[in-house]
Structure formats: structure tokens, C-alpha cells
Amino acid sequence: MEPLNHQGRVLYVVACAAPAAAGLPRLVTLAQTSGWQVHVVATPMGERFIDIPELERLTGDLVRSAFRMPDAPKGLPPADAVIVAPATFNTINKWAGGIADTFAVGLLCEMMGFGVPIVAVPLLKDALARHVAFGRSVAALRKMGVHVLFDPAAPPEARMPSWDRVMQELHSVVRGRQTQG
């Protein structure tokens, strides 16, 4: 099957505070190669795990992590899809519960309301993956239409799929939405 042409389509990449976030330049490059216009959003703690200057250089846009003031111009074009990777325990639980206390989580809640295709890739410690709140939150997000790429049976060191796999999953989800519409 031929990959879809995503030329000019807007992809938000939401990064949380986990070591895998340091690899976001690879994800951005893969997405751009597929024709996506990429915009990066980070949780406040996620900023500590990413190379903001490098991501801004790659995307030609600011990395956002804070709410804009009411008189500030809107900074992001409407999204056609979203990847949340790595998604932490905290972000997954707040997002599923509708606790929009950060720009990133508020944006994710809105994207769900707009019906934008979303792929979430949780990355967390094994003990947190076993926490009952996490399981409920993943189930709730899936029920709301979020594609959660997480295998609880995988060993912790293998839970984060490659960026290539994340992009394959995004294209599959977007393709599925297009064939349904």
C-alpha cells in the first residue's frame, strides 16, 4: 500500500518529561520527510528533556509550553494529527481526567474534542504502568478515540517503540480515518 501524501498537513508533536524526548529531532525529521508540517509542544517538565533550539531550527517554529495571553496572536495552525510521545504517567492521567492545567494537556483535550487523530505513546516506569489509575486512563483515552501505542506485557526497556514505528502508526490511524470519512 502506498503511503498517503501528507504534504502541507499539520502535525503537533507533544513531548513530556521522559528520556526518549531527547530523540524528538528524529521524529520531526521523519514526519517532515513524509510531508508533515511539524509543530512541537512540550509540557513544562518536558522542556528539560528536549533540545529546544534544535527543534526550533528543524521546524522553523517556536516550541510552545505555555498558554498564550488573550491579546497574543494565535500561534499554531489547526492540526490534522497529533503524536504524544513520550507520554508520561502524569500527562496520561491528567489528559484522561480532563485536567487541563498545562498548555500541552489543554491542547490535547481540545484536539480530542475536534476529532483530530491522535497517537499517544506512553513511556513510564513498570511500577507506574501497574498503577490502577494508569490502566483506567489508557482505557478512557482509547474509548474517546485516542490510539494508544502501549504494550503492558513488553519489558519496560522495550515499551518505547522506534520513531519509525510511531510514524507508521500515525499513518495507519490517519489512513483509517480517511477511509471512514
Biggest sheet strand order reads: 2-1-3-4-5
The CATH superfamily bears the name Flavin prenyltransferase-like
- Average the pLDDT over all residues and give the rounded result: 91
Query: Helicity level, as a percent range?
Result: 40-55%
How large a portion of the residues is in β-strands, by DSSP E? 15-25%
The number of domains: 1
The beta-strand count equals 5
How would you describe this structure to a colleague?
The protein has 181 residues and is α/β, with parallel strands linked by helices. It has one domain: 3-Layer(aba) Sandwich (Rossmann fold). It is 40% helix and 15% strand. It has 7 helices and 5 strands; from the N terminus they run βαβαβααβααβα. The protein has helices spanning 24-33, 52-59, 89-97, 103-114, 126-129, 132-143, 163-180; strands at residues 9-15, 36-42, 81-87, 118-122, 147-148. The protein has a 5-stranded parallel β-sheet with strand order 2-1-3-4-5, with helices on both faces. Helix 1 packs parallel to helix 2 (52-59), helix 3 (89-97) packs across helix 4 (103-114) and helix 3 crosses helix 6 (132-143). The chain starts with 8 loop residues before the first strand and ends with a helix. 38% of the residues are buried.
